Amino acid sequence: MDFSWVSEFWPILLGGLWRTLLLLVLGALFGFALAIPVAVARISPNPILYYLSGTFTTVIRGTPLLVQIYILYYGVGTLLAATPEVRTSIFWPYLRDGFWYVVVSLAISVAAYEGELLRGGLLSVAKGQLEAARAFGMSSGLMFRRIWLPSALRMLLPTLVGDTVLLLKSTALASTVAVVDLVGAANQVRTHTFLVYEPLLTVALVYLIITAMITSIAGLISRRVPQKAV
Amino acid sequence: MKAFRLMSQISGGLLAIVLSTAAVSAQDVVRVGLDPGPFPPFTDKKADGSRFGFEPDLLASFCEGMKVKCQLVEITWDGLISALNNNKIDMIYNNMTITEERKKRVDFSNPYYDTRVVFVGPKGAPVQPTKESLKGKIIGVISGSVHAAYAQARFGDSAEIKIFPRQDEVTSDLLAGRLDLMISDALAMEEFLKTPEGKPYEIKAEAPKDPLLGGGVGAAFRKGDPLRDKMNAVLSNMVASGEYDKIQKKYFKVDVSPR
A54: domain CATH number? Predict the structure, then answer.
């Protein structure tokens, strides 16, 4: 094992770590935010909303994330680039960077998976709780925010943690569209040093550490939010 | 217990298969490692997956001359050297430029072709291959290529270097306007500029001589493998007999034979 390259390449690795964390946080943030309307639409009595959201989750969950990233980056991205208005706009510096295409792909994927999960969670909240909330004169919006969504989220917490770890590992796909995340950084080290195991084992260890951090943060949250007997 | 016995039978059978293929490959089958991606005019693929181009033609002659059966093994470009040293392949034959850094890990044949390295970008404003001229530019290269090593070492602190697994991905990002320039092999770039998509682009500059860009393209072998000397002998025979010229004239107007 030869780790002498670390002294030369650590800035690349650090930049990769930063980009991986950013992909994880932005993907989770936008993804979970989108998952709520998706879940609500999935249990909505409105047939249009119901079928639209159903199609969305089926399509996204039924196709590989890598294919989605490629469609966005090489497909939609190329169309955008062919439009002069886009190319001269202030958004162009973002639109030409693979990073944001990966963020959008991750967010859409999270929205579909967690939307479907949240739908199940919402449906399994005890009816009595919701009726009690209504009996107290809560509006539907207030009831959703204060009772329904929190109860569902608390129930789903272990699954959400597992899915966040999965999301972390999905961010590695960013390296396929020239984003230098942790894997991209390891690839750069590999091409310079021709070493295989050392850079890959190093980033594997970093992924493990991030995973441990996610689970311990989740542990803290679940201890602070006691699960009430239903 | 039963499961264990079954497992040991299966693994015993597998071992026998592995041993028998190893015995054959040691004699006359040479596993030639190359990247699955196209890189015209050097190597390209037909719709059915079969290869054509300068390198496949040349390879056929090499294998015939070495009196071996060549078996193509597709391995992603940046994994070729490790695959060779881990004995997954016996020879790398994939536009690999001979560099000092690579020589530490593999033995190269004599160069079998030599070309220039160029910068390609949209027609218009001129570009110099200098840090000042490339400041803030986004430059695309292939992962693990001499072009990547060169771009990062010489311009990495003033330009943004984007690294892609394959040339067709670099090209499509240039077409999408997400790259300002790409650095690659001159002949491959001339081929691209001849296509309808390549119309709005031009060669902006030629890279000056640089040790990072190496000296010619050679086949790579494991350290100490006698196959290399066999290949060198075949190569010099082909150049002397005019067979090399016949093959290169099929693809290039300029002379690419190594000097």
Answer: 1.10.3720.10
